[in-house]
Amino acid sequence: MHTGAKAPPMLAAAAERGAMKQAFSTIALAGLAMFAAAGTSARADSGGRLSTLERGIYACEMPGDAATSRGIPVPEEGFIITNGSAYSADGKSGTYLRVGDMVTMTSGPRKGNRYELKGERYLRKLDATGQPTGLRCVRIGATPK
């Protein structure tokens, strides 16, 4: 039978401590999982693992026609991967997110651009619907000092 009386202060405090311990345990486990995930390999995979691109200069081009085997440079689309998940383009910096073989520019001058990784040094730009645009970006050299 419920009398409507409150629990004695000591019991209420004990229950509150139990809830706090549960919350801190959950937070600690989440932090541990994030720490473990950060130590995973930086290779792309189809499993959706977070990773980074190889540092360096990425030059972009459109494919050439049948008469020329060379691509048509599109220098205004190029960028430099500077460190971790940071890039620079047009004299400004930004960040990107690589999940598996998909790369999304999340801030900076290329914000919103999406690419599919076709190889460790080769990206294909995607349109708003996720279809390839024809533009390809290839790592051509190390990050300048």
Written description of the protein model:
- By secondary structure, the protein is of the alpha+beta class.
- It has one helix and ten strands, in the order H-E-E-E-E-E-E-E-E-E-E.
- It has one helix at 9-38, and strands at 50-51, 56-62, 72-73, 79-83, 86-89, 92-99, 102-105, 114-119, 122-126, 132-141.
- The protein has an eight-stranded antiparallel beta barrel.
- The protein is globular, with a radius of gyration of 24 Å.
- The N and C termini lie far apart (76 Å).
- The model is unreliable at 23-45 (pLDDT under 50).
Quick summary of this structure?
The chain has 145 residues and is α+β, with helices and mostly antiparallel strands. It contains one helix and ten strands.
